[in-house]
Amino acid sequence: MPRRILEKVRKWSAGRKAIVVLLAGFAAGIGMLALAGTTLVYTSSEAFCAANCHEMATNVAMEYKGTIHDKNRTGVRATCPDCHVPNAPIPLYIRKMGAVNDLWGHYISHSIDTREKFEAKRQVLAERVWAYMKGNDSRECRHCHTVAKMDSDKQSDKAKARHAKARKEKLTCIDCHFAIAHNEPVGGPGPQEMEVDRSLISRGAIF
Amino acid sequence: MIKFLKTIGARLSRPGSIVVLGVGLVAGMVFFFSVGSFMVYANSEEFCANACHEMTVHMAAEYKGTIHDTNRTGVRATCNDCHVPHEYLPNYAAKLGLFSDYWGHFVTRSIDTKEKFEAKRYELAKRVWVYMKENDSRECRHCHTTAKMDAEKQSEKAQRRHDKGRSEGLTCIDCHFAIAHSEPNGPGPQELSAAAAATK
User: How far apart are CA A118 and CA A105, in angstroms?
Assistant: First the structure.
């Protein structure tokens, strides 16, 4: 703030106009928080995520098109942020700061700006997401899919048997339900073959 | 450190200080954060289904076990998903409408027994149906994106009926009513004429 304005605010604060300064601060506080909140909401929308950089638009968003989370019987969808942006406030803020990494890759290192570079890095990127999801017990999956409210009578026999097996072996959603929204990387280990500290898997303990 | 605190103290005690602005700023943030948090809390199933016995014993109990509560995938729609608008302005308007709920709960006690509730069920259902007809089932469509419905995964009956619904200009609630609460006796949403819908 320029010194002159600062001095003016000081002078006002001393006199009867102090209340005006207080109210101005109040309004500015509301404005700042509203702006921050709106930014968080907007940057967590499919419109922003799938269209804002060609890395997302041409690779991951394209692959997502037509998958079960995009198009299905009821038209109830899960878009980019539903799976990849935490809903709990603190993990959300941490993730949003992690977006600096995306900006770095886009503007500075150009790490996945061609299809070839993206394909070459696919396994690394997939493993990063799998490790994150294993570490928080597939928290983002569970934000929509409430296990306690799943009607197993409406699931196939195969699904029932596998879910029972997974519970016994303490698996988490992503251990089996991987590559359901994007292409499966070729060659490398899948989530079940990955070494992730299983003691970390307790819901909400990990960001 | 102590010197720093003393400086702050001196600034605070001196009236002509920028601190006034800072205090206002923080107060504004706290105020806005509180309002926002309350909005989120007041839109949760935890709040809606438990805050008053009217909701708990009538509406929430009926909702239990319906397709929007428990289903194959465990993806749910709870009270607020259907009954609280998701856009900002309609949301605020709906929140102000809460005063009607307070009035009914604390003053007129309009549905505090099962008998009173049953006697009023049709009127209450009609109110919701008219609201949903007027905004083209906006809250349904917040989750159910028509353009992303895969017709091939629907039954033939459903496909046919959706075609018919489209050609007759019907909206979701015209057919999908009484899916989360018991059906009242009386004309359904389709029988409510547009005129009745317009005059409420």
Answer: 12
